[in-house]
Amino acid sequence: QVQLVESGGGLVQAGGSLRLSCAATGRTSSILAMGWFRQAPGKEREFVAAIRRSAGTTAYAASVKGRFTISRDNAKNTVYLQMNSLKPEDAAVYYCTADVSARWRISAAPVDYDYWGQGTQVTVSS
Fold first, then answer.
1. Does residue 102 contact residue 32 with C-beta atoms inside 8 Å?
2. Contact partners, residue 54, CB within 8 Å, separation at least 6
3. Residue 13 forms beta bridges with which residues?
4. Which of 21, 67, 100, 110 lies 20 to 30 Å (CA to CA) from residue 3?
5. SS3 letters across the chain
6. Rounded Cα gap, residues 58 and 15, in angstroms
7. C-alpha distances out from residue 96 to 3, 13, 33, 120, 122, Å
């Protein structure tokens, strides 16, 4: 089992920045990729970004590419999401997730991820 705990959410003005962190505990050696999804009220959960644990390969949703950066610190079993130039439409609950399955490419499908954090709220005021 893997446990994921997010932190770093909050309220920020449009154009501002936030950094989310996600610490993994438990069977962290089984994790092959970690990522972030988000869900706004009344909307489906959507892929934001993900990173392969070993190679550091990344993938981003088109809506955040160039503004968000995902990174990892394997020694701390932690993944980060640096969010810059935030927009009101970025407001959502952000979920950290972990994938333990070997894949040819990073998945953007929630169903492919095995473990989820409890979520952290990001609010962007206009």
1. yes
2. 32
3. 125
4. 67
5. CEEEEEECCEEEECCCCEEEEEEEEECHHHCCEEEEEEECCCCCCEEEEEEECCCCCEEECCCCECCEEEEEEHHHCEEEEEECCCCHHHCEEEEEEEECCCCCCCCCCHHHCCEECCCEEEEEEC
6. 24
7. 10, 23, 11, 9, 13
Average model confidence (pLDDT) across the chain: 97
Q: How far apart are CA 124 and CA 54, in angstroms?
A: 33
pLDDT in tens, 9-64: 999 999 999 999 999 999 999 999 999 999 999 999 999 999 999 999 999 999 99
Rounded to 5 degrees, what are φ and ψ at 111?
Answer: -65, -20
Which residue has tokens 């970025």? 90
**Would you say 98 and 4 are in contact if contact means Cβ atoms under 8 Å apart?**
yes
